[in-house]
Amino acid sequence: MKRAWVLRILVACIGIFIAANLYLALKPGSKVDKTAYIDKWQAVSKENLIDSFSKKGVVSPAEEYQVYYDERQGVFNQFLVKEGDTITPGTGLFEYQPEDLDAEKERLNAETEKLENQLDDLEDHIDDLETYKRTLIFAEEEKDSETAVTSSLDRDIHEKELQVSMLERELEMTENQLDYLEDQPGSVTVQSNFSGTISEIDRSLENPIITITSDASLINGELTLDERMETSMGLKVFVSAKGFKGEGSIINLESLPKSGASLNKESTYPFSVQLNEDATEILKGTPVHIEIVTDEIEGAVTVPSKVIKKDKDASSLWVISNTGKLERRQIESGLQVNGRTEIKDGLEKGEWIIMDNGIHKDFDGTEAATSFKTKHLSKKHLSSLKNKTKWKYILRGFVSR
């Protein structure tokens, strides 16, 4: 009986001793040295982060050109091309016999003068746009607006330059018709202004009598309302299909729904992608996978998103400092993609972060003890280290103890 009481008293004393030591070690502000055992840690790295979403698309002709015949100009003679023919600017398309040769010359001269005036106006407009772009000044906080405005101006300039190119070809064709009438009065040959393929000929002479499909291709697709709101002109795009991978950018983005607004069905918004490289090997009609890049950061300092702790408006993570102690580090996070988060401020490449969960805030400033990873230790790894590096690590181990 007496021995039982002694045993109980002994157990109680041991329990009190253990509880007292735990309290003294773990209470806030305790001066007792503590060591945190860390099982998982890793070095901070840099990588490129790309935020994107996927869409389906189809390869389509960049443009279709339609050729018309005006019966008032004369009597139709013959077609000079057939469906499937590949043509270039200046290729003869069809012939007609003008009823009044002088009237036809007068018409062509008037057309020449009109085209020259249109070219002058367009070139003046391009000069004005380029001058306006050079005079733009944006504050630092207006960088997003600067990108949108300059992209819009570049797009307008590019469109005007394309119009100039088309008008120059049309002017050349008209002048060639005039020269032909002067040299060989009689039939008139209507020439093409474009490169492409003859996709359709209407032999009943119902306009348009000829349809030309351009050699250049675009990738066309459709966006939902939410996708349309996060998409803008000029965004980078990755395109892939069987046997093909390429990059491009969005050059056309509709603001109105494809089939009009409706309460009964979801609105879709057409968009077009122009590839950076020639993609003539992809047949028109080929389905493709489109990856639209909405945000991209090169060389971002990143960590796994799960190691970041959020507390109201602040974010932090645990770091092993240069002195080997735990540090709860305040950070500023940025873009988050596929479980990785950009660290804008508070962390640098090469620092060590802790992957373990459940580290108590009172461990801030305590020594960090990491497990010995034998799988990372091999004769090959050791022999690759310089002697100076080996002694540095050995001495650091003694000093830290």
Automatic annotation (TrEMBL):
The chain crosses the membrane at residues 6-26. GO terms for cellular component: cell envelope. It is found in: Cell envelope. InterPro entries: BSH_YknX-like (IPR058639), MdtA-like_C (IPR058627), UPF0194_transport (IPR050465). Keywords: Coiled coil, Membrane, Transmembrane, Transmembrane helix. It holds the Pfam family BSH_YknX. It comes from the Bacteria. Residues 98-184 form a coiled coil. This is RND family efflux transporter MFP subunit. The lineage of its organism: Bacteria, Bacillati, Bacillota, Bacilli, Bacillales.
